[in-house]
UniProtKB/TrEMBL annotation:
This is Cytidylate kinase. Gene3D superfamilies: P-loop containing nucleotide triphosphate hydrolases (3.40.50.300). InterPro entries: Cytidylate_kin, Cytidylate_kinase_dom, P-loop_NTPase. ATP binds at residues 7-15. Pfam families: Cytidylate_kin (PF02224). Keywords: ATP-binding, Cytoplasm, Kinase, Nucleotide-binding, Transferase. It is found in: Cytoplasm. It comes from the Bacteria. One of its GO terms (molecular function) is dCMP kinase activity. It comes from Entomospira entomophila. GO terms for biological process: pyrimidine nucleotide metabolic process.
Amino acid sequence: MIIAIDGPAGGGKSALASLISKRLGFFLLNSGLLYRAITALALQKGLLQLSEPDIGRITELAEETRFSIIDDILYVNHVDMSSQLHTHEVDRYVAHVSSIESVRNVLNENMRKLVADRDTVCEGRDMTSVVFPEAKLKIFLDASVEIRAKRRFDQEYSRMSLDEIQKSIQNRDEIDKTKAIGALKIVPDAWYIESSDKSLEDVYHMVASRIEEIRE
């Protein structure tokens, strides 16, 4: 059984997916971490700081990279890169990397292999529309930009101010909604959840009840 969760940056997808995984025993796939990993590796190799990013070499990098997930930790070429995935530089470039069609194709195939024959909860931008259109439960989790910025600020992923985080999220929203490949959208059969006035526990219990109904 696959549960696919889409939504904008800071909408609570990761927290919800993590809770579902821990409490219901689902394998957890955070698609954004794969894109962040490739972005971090590309930055290390100087492939993104050019006036024109080297799409060919970034795609080769994605093809050569090996991913595994153990105890909800993403290992990249057998290395835990968790501390490198939420830097300001990665935040700045990850949307551009995720807009490269050839990179998306490589990572989408990686994701399908990672979840093969597993009960999985996955989250990202196009899980419901592109990567797992056959998912048993599709969710679009949303919240206001102000609430999303506050949540991201409280997570203390970076040293950015609340205002800087909000501007970064607004910029990411615009890129996500308008990019030609893998654009953020609500598919017709997705369950739309507006979580601005809901706690994580509220949303979890809503979703857990729906999962129980599907399993019966």
